[in-house]
Specification:
With 194 residues, the chain is mainly α. Helices cover 79% and strands 0% of the residues.
Length: 194
Amino acid sequence: MTRKPVIEDIALGLFASEGFEGASLGRIADAVGIRKPSIYAHFRSKEDLFLSVFDRALTRKRQDWFRYALQGAKLPLEDNLHRIAVRLLDDYESDTETRFLLRMFYFPPSSLHDDVMNLVKPFFEQSEQGLTKLLQRPVHARRLYAENDAPDAALSYITVLDGLIAEAIYGDRSRAERRLRAVWPIYCRGILKP
C-alpha cells in the first residue's frame, strides 16, 4: 500500500505546476502508480488532499525559514534581513514547495479560500511576532528610530517581502532583484539610525 507522504509529495508537485484545478486525482494517482480509489484510503477528497499538502508544506517551510532567520541573528540587522529576502527569492525560483506555498498564499483555490487563509493567517502572525522579537533584541533595538518601533519595522519588512513575492510571481527574478535593490536602502534609512 502506498504511504500517505508519497501521495502528498506527488500531489505537491502537480499542484505547484498545474494548480488545484489542473491537478486531478486521476493524474495524481497515475503519477504515484496507484489507482484513483486508493487515494481515498488516505484522503476524503481532492480538497482534503490539497489542504493536507498545504499544511505539511507550510509547517516544513515555517521551520526552515525561521531557522534561517535565527542563524543570521548575530549579523548586522540590515544584512540578516537582506539575506532572508534573497533566500525567499532563491527558494521561489528553485524549490517546488516554496513556489507552491507562495502562489497559494496569494491565489488559493476559490473553493478553499477560507480554509487556506485559516492556515496562512497564523503563519503571517507568527512571522511578524518572530521578526518583532528579533528586532527587539538590544543589539538591534538600539539602532531603531524611536518612532519606528520593532512592530512597525517588522510589518514594514513584511510589506517589502510582499512586493518581492508579487514581482517574482508576476514578473521574474531580475525584476524582483531590481525592486529589492531600489527599496532596500530606503527601507534601511527609514528604520535604522546611521
